[in-house]
Amino acid sequence: AQRVTQPEKLLSVFKGAPVELKCNYSYSGSPELFWYVQYSRQRLQLLLRHISRESIKGFTADLNKGETSFHLKKPFAQEEDSAMYYCARRSYNTDKLIFGTGTRLQVFP
Amino acid sequence: ETGVTQSPTHLIKTRGQQVTLRCSSQSGHNTVSWYQQALGQGPQFIFQYYREEENGRGNFPPRFSGLQFPNYSSELNVNALELDDSALYLCASSLGGDGYTFGSGTRLTVV
């Protein structure tokens, strides 16, 4: 089965601390992976996708095929980063997205 | 450019009733996907519509059905509602399955 696992339900850090949100996926060829973010009372929105290899709002994520991971990282967390973060992959045989259960990031001042 | 809009934002239904949720896709998008997000869970894929045809379905029973209209808007219908159907229902539109834009969702409560 194609799965996306986010082992942490909650991650709390202080402002300025590094952040790493973990995501592991079940192996199947070359997955297309995404990070979505949902700020309080806002809709789910795309943060970044691995194929674009870009940095959005200071966040980066590197696909590690050996560890089947796609962890989201930011060197210095900001209070406005507090949100719900979902890792997702595109199904290999359809266009659907398979989401993890999400990690809530709390950044304290 | 308008985003994805969903209606209603909230509704309460009784077990056994039927419900219709609506979604207007983002301008230029021809593909609509529906997801169910239960409390504390990530979104789960229900089905996708492309050019008015169902184009992929998740692990949901047949009482979950949908439509897509020529203007690419879409409806999700759920018959014989059960308590476990209580969730946030998300609609996402895209151009051919690339770059999904999500709506704010419809919060359905079944009592």
Secondary structure elements and pairings:
The complex is a heterodimer of chains A (109) and B (111).
Chain A: E1 4-5, E2 10-14, E3 19-21, E4 24-25, E5 32-38, E6 45-49, E7 60-61, E8 72-74, E9 83-90, E10 97-99, E11 103-108
Parallel strand pairs in A: 2-11
Antiparallel strand pairs in A: 1-4, 3-8, 5-6, 5-9, 7-8, 9-10, 9-11
Chain B: E1 5-7, E2 10-13, E3 19-24, E4 31-37, E5 44-50, E6 53-57, E7 64-68, E8 74-78, E9 87-95, E10 98-102, E11 106-110
Parallel strand pairs in B: 2-11
Antiparallel strand pairs in B: 1-3, 3-8, 4-5, 4-9, 5-6, 7-8, 9-10, 9-11
Comma- or semicolon-separated keywords:
heterodimer, A: 109 residues, mainly beta, 6-stranded mixed β-sheet, 3-stranded antiparallel β-sheet, 11 strands, 0% helix, B: 111 residues, 55% strand
Distance between the termini of chain B: 37 Å
Oligomeric composition of the shown chains: heterodimer
SSE-based structural type of chain B: mainly beta
Query: Tally of extended strands of chain B?
Result: 11
Query: How many β-strand runs of chain A?
Result: 11
Q: Count of helices of chain B?
A: 0
* Uncertain spans of chain A: none
CA radius of gyration of chain B: 13 Å
Class computed from helices, strands and strand pairing of chain A: mainly beta
Strand portion of chain B, in percent? Answer: over 45%
The amount of helix of chain B comes to under 10%
Largest interface: A-B, 21 and 24 residues
Helix proportion range of chain A: under 10%
Low-confidence stretches of chain B: none
Share of β-strand residues of chain A: 35-45%
